[in-house]
Design a protein that fits this description.
Glycosyltransferase, two-stranded antiparallel ribbon, mainly alpha, disordered N terminus, 4 strands, two-stranded antiparallel sheet
Length: 191
């Protein structure tokens, strides 16, 4: 991969040709450090599609699809509409990958000048708009999602995995706000 180009890496690109030019969510979770910045840059380059993906469902921020290709629009096969619509942890996975990249490299320039800070902030914004407050339970919830096990139908409310990556997304945005100058709203932190 070359810096500055919006190239695609499939989840199995190094070992298999079964997912030609399709980017699955596991790419961020299991990518080697050598490729991390380029894979995150791919997501940043397709930020307009991520904004569109969030708005289609009435949310803010950037929502990344379960399967993505050249345009950043979800290309999940028609056989799996539930996955396309409800497997939202992907956005949190990408923020987690950014966290791992920062922890491994300490690359503050990526945060401040290469839109890494925007990526993190907009992932957190998505979760800030996705969580709903349950007055009866006196807590925030993330309802109607699929966890990484997409065969775990019916949908879940408060999937442990989804809620964990959502919380990490918001915590990361708050942690790097001193570098990015993007103040995390208290309403997100309360989630």
């Amino acid at each position: 991969m070359t810096s500055g180009k919006c190239e695609r890496v499939s989840s199995e690109a190094i070992t298999s040709s079964s997912k030609h030019l399709i980017k699955l969510w596991v790419g961020e979770d299991f990518c080697p450090l050598l490729l991390a910045k380029e894979i995150l840059s791919y997501r940043i380059a397709l930020r307009e599609s991520a904004v569109h993906n969030a708005r289609v469902f009435g949310y803010e921020g950037w929502r990344f699809p379960w399967e993505s290709a050249r345009t950043g629009i979800d290309v999940t096969p028609n056989c799996c509409p539930e996955v396309r619509l409800y497997e939202m942890h992907v956005t949190g996975d990408i923020a987690f990958a950014a966290r791992q990249y920062i922890a491994a490299t300490g690359n503050r320039d990526w945060l401040a000048n290469e839109l890494g800070g925007d990526l993190i902030y907009e992932c957190a914004r998505f979760w800030g708009s996705r969580a709903v407050y349950n007055n009866k339970k006196k807590q925030y919830e993330i309802l109607t999602v699929l966890p990484p096990d997409e065969d775990a139908l019916p949908f879940k409310n408060n999937s442990v995995f989804t809620n964990a990556v959502a919380a990490l997304s918001i915590q990361l945005a708050d942690s790097v706000s001193c570098i990015t100058n993007k103040k995390t709203p208290q309403s997100w932190i309360d989630i």
